[in-house]
Recover the amino acids of this structure.
């Protein structure tokens, strides 16, 4: 539990420093060059957040594989409310298939949020185990994410 708190604190620090506005350049030679560089910086950060507004940080097994906690961040340029749906599927070493889906509501205000969604294993399937899994994520207003991940203890 202590490791998860430390991980969440570290991830929030990374997200806040990533989303923080760049400091003003005091050594700018003219006001025109300062405004041009600020506008270029703003458009670059806006395009970066528009390209990939969701970042998956980690996936942790919970309750002996009965669930998986998915830690992720969402970058949002304006006030946004929506839903994050996370699905995890895994073909275990013994050939059994584990899978489940979790859904969370979120509200994001000017910047970004960190979220942890718990994905519980389907009652009809096997529990999750350490190793490779497939993560699919759909967040309101962004493109879906399909990626391989590693489930950790």
């Amino acid at each position: 539990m202590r490791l998860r708190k430390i991980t969440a604190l570290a991830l929030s620090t990374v997200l806040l420093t990533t989303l923080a506005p760049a400091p003003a350049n005091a050594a700018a030679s003219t006001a025109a060059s300062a405004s041009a560089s600020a506008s270029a910086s703003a458009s670059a950060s806006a395009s970066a957040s528009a390209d990939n507004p969701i970042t998956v940080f980690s996936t942790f097994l919970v309750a002996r594989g009965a669930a998986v906690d998915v830690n992720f961040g969402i970058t949002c340029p304006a006030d946004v409310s929506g839903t994050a749906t996370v699905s995890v599927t895994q073909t275990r070493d013994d050939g059994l298939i584990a899978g489940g889906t979790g859904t969370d509501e979120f509200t994001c205000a000017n910047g970004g949020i960190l979220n942890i969604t718990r994905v519980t294993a389907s009652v009809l399937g096997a529990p999750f185990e350490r190793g490779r899994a497939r993560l699919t994520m759909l967040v309101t207003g962004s493109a879906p994410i399909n990626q391989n991940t590693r489930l950790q203890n």
